Amino acid sequence: MTRNAKTSNLGYPRIGANREWKKALEAYWAGKINEEQLRTEMEQFQLSNLRKQQEAGIDLIPVGDFTYYDHVLDTAVMFGIVPPRYRYEGGPAGLDLYFAMARGNSRAAACEMTKWFNTNYHYIVPEIGDIQPVLTENKPLAAYRFAKSQAGIDGKPVVIGLYTFLKLSKGFALSEIRSVAERFLPVYVQLLQELEREGAAWVQIDEPAVVTGLQEEDIELLGHIYGALHAAVPGLRIMLQTYFESVQPLEALLKLPVQGLGLDFVHDGGANLEAIERLGWPEDKTLGAGVIDGRGIWRCDPEEKLALAERLERLVPEGKLILQPSSSLLHVPVTVQGEERLKPEVRNALAFADEKLAELALLKRALLEGREAAGAQWAGAKAALDAFRKLPERNRSDVAELERGLEELTDRRNTVYAERAKRQQDKWRLPLLPTTTIGSFPQTPEVRQARLKWRKGELSPERYDEFIRQQIAESITLQEKIGLDVLVHGEFERTDMVEFFGEKLDGFLFTRNGWVQSYGSRCVKPPVIYADVAFTEPMTVKESVYAQSLTKLPVKGMLTGPVTILNWSFVRDDLSREQVANQIALALRQEILALESAGVEMIQVDEPAVREGLPLKEQDRRQYLEWAVRAFRISTSLVRDTTQIHTHMCYCEFGDMIDSISDMDADVISIETSRSHGELIASFEQMDYDKGIGLGVYDIHSPRVPSVEEMETGIERALRVLHPEQFWINPDCGLKTRGWSETEASLRNMVAAADNARKKA
Ligand code: GLN
Ligand code: ZN
């Protein structure tokens, strides 16, 4: 038994148990509170987050992870990395400048925002250019002092590592990374020296970028950076923190002159543990052992975690083990308290941020004093998990039966594309360059209000249905008037493309308050897949059939695909993601057959989130794409030759995915192109894409109405590479965030542009 082990946390959710943080920010932006009020509120949130971690008994509490918007933006601003368009003149950036970079202002556009590794968190991309960094304020130091003076906490400052910071930034060529690093080293040194002088025991330096795979030059750069930092602050204990996947090769990090290395033992596929057992653990280093899942929402199996902790403990020297979550808890909701509406077996199986901290404390106790000492809590944890595992809806024999058939299941259309395309053309007789939209039409306040009233019981289901039918009817009339060739019903009955299906399929649940930050003040409440997913009854047939009954033109049925439903939900962790994707795919397969037999024979299955599930390491991507694409085909392959399957993806950087996209075998795909038209077309040219394809001809993210000429030029450009017979004309994405007036005007121009292009083609 150990004499010594500590617990640590890597980061705590900012948003507050009731999204107080979000509300304060938005109140400030709306001018309802002033800067001083905002700062006061923010300090309170920060303090209460610290106290919660203190009360949970965590030994090393992170400080400096709290932010007013985004921690990457904080880092950039702290180093004076402010693009010239904001006319920044040095010194600590004020709040206005800070928020302008995040959200834009009347003079300058916002900085770009992008996904934080493989999570649904988005960060503001630093634009380094040739700015010379200076330490304008030491934010981690301020946070360290705050925690000490306000709560008596000797916190662990958190800093984004230089290597990761540079990998996430733009404004320089990758070949210059070494010299850019050189520019930054002095400010990192200064920052760390100030922390050392203040007496910080540990500093957590986050380097998640290392898990994307290390090449020779990366290893060299890391060696250079950490060599320089060590030389400047030899006495400071640096925990080089990685997360989200395994480190490969781990040897590279074991050699760095840092006192601690933090590794993820949950999402590493076993590779980190295997590497330590093979290589041995260096005598001089502390292991930050990410044993509790920092991203998932499920209670851990205490016995399994204890076994892991004991195994790790044997591998590292006495007193050099720290138990911690696998990543920052930023990616999970705050607390399960308040979820009383869920049935107890499920509720007790959930662990959000606060519950995870409790799990850590319990695990430490069991490791140090034995599981008997952990007593009733230990037994309780095991019993809760047991009850959850036994729930009949997690062990359905009918779903198991379907899954057994998966291997032999046909996931291919009856006929190859070229063949069925002919039959489809005979059936549909579409004009050259057919026009369509992506699915949703404006969700006006009227639509949202009606739904809210219906949910509250203030509007009867019949009246609500009637309201939706009326919306559909109006949109069909309008689409005919505009002259579109393939219509949609408009998705007025859906708030959200995943929630809508989650509510109708078995296996999902919805929390009351399970919010996580997506970007800035925007939070999302992902559905939770807690049990076997299964089809119960048709989900979209009613609206689609009604819409089709109103017109002679084809109306596309509209579904969300299996991979998107998976990637935008919290998923049970006892099955592989592939298994869950297949369960969803089997359920959607039934929906698609139901649509087809009800006479809906053009069906769009949206997959905007396929890219979000891509593993961080190149080498793991093929396998993911294989099962993701198969799940799509399981859903869509059973239809008749003449039934036309469409899909939609809303991003454009997928040069590396084009083969997989073709392999989905959708008859028509529409994709977003507004931001990198040329590049995208070039990648399709290279691979000789032969199926139907619509490259969005205008950007729906702004209310601007594009001119006919502008769209015509875009179409002509695409037609230099793609055949007129395969090209579709549509906007970039769904129109639900737009107003009706610009929607109608833009679509009219789009139809006119298509007419002109047809004449020339
Ligand atoms: N059919 C959906 C819509 O139009 C697609 C949304 C998306 O791609 N995110 O809203
Ligand atoms: Zn889209």
Automatic annotation (TrEMBL):
Positions that bind L-homocysteine: I438, G439, S440, E491, D606
Pathway per the UniProt entry: Amino-acid biosynthesis; L-methionine biosynthesis via de novo pathway; L-methionine from L-homocysteine (MetE route): step 1/1
Residues annotated as binding Zn(2+): H648, C650, E672, C733
Cobalamin-independent methionine synthase MetE C-terminal/archaeal domain boundaries: 433-755
Enzyme Commission number(s) of this protein: 2.1.1.14
Domain named Cobalamin-independent methionine synthase MetE N-terminal: residues: 7-314
Matches recorded under Pfam families: Meth_synt_1, Meth_synt_2
Highest taxon in the source lineage: Bacteria
Reaction equations catalysed: 5-methyltetrahydropteroyltri-L-glutamate + L-homocysteine = tetrahydropteroyltri-L-glutamate + L-methionine
InterPro entries reported in the protein's UniProt record: Cbl-indep_Met_Synth_N, Cobalamin-indep_Met_synthase, Met_Synth_C/arc, UROD/MetE-like_sf
Enzyme class: transferase
Name of the gene this protein is made from: metE
Native organism: Paenibacillus apii
SUPFAM superfamilies: UROD/MetE-like
Catalytic machinery residues: H701
Cofactor binding, per record: Binds 1 zinc ion per subunit.
GO molecular function: 5-methyltetrahydropteroyltriglutamate-homocysteine S-methyltransferase activity; zinc ion binding
Protein's GO biological process: methionine biosynthetic process; methylation
Role noted for this protein: Catalyzes the transfer of a methyl group from 5-methyltetrahydrofolate to homocysteine resulting in methionine formation.
Chain sites annotated for binding 5-methyltetrahydropteroyltri-L-glutamate: R19, E20, W21, K22, K115, N120, R522, C523, W568, E612
Species classification: Bacteria, Bacillati, Bacillota, Bacilli, Bacillales
Binding site for L-methionine: I438, G439, S440, E491, D606
Binding sites annotated in the UniProt record for Zn(2+) 1: H648, C650, D663, E672, C733
Record-linked PANTHER family: 5-METHYLTETRAHYDROPTEROYLTRIGLUTAMATE--HOMOCYSTEINE METHYLTRANSFERASE
Family: Belongs to the vitamin-B12 independent methionine synthase family.
Keywords: Amino-acid biosynthesis, Metal-binding, Methionine biosynthesis, Methyltransferase, Repeat, Transferase, Zinc
Designated name of the protein: 5-methyltetrahydropteroyltriglutamate--homocysteine methyltransferase
Obligatory cofactor(s): Zn(2+)
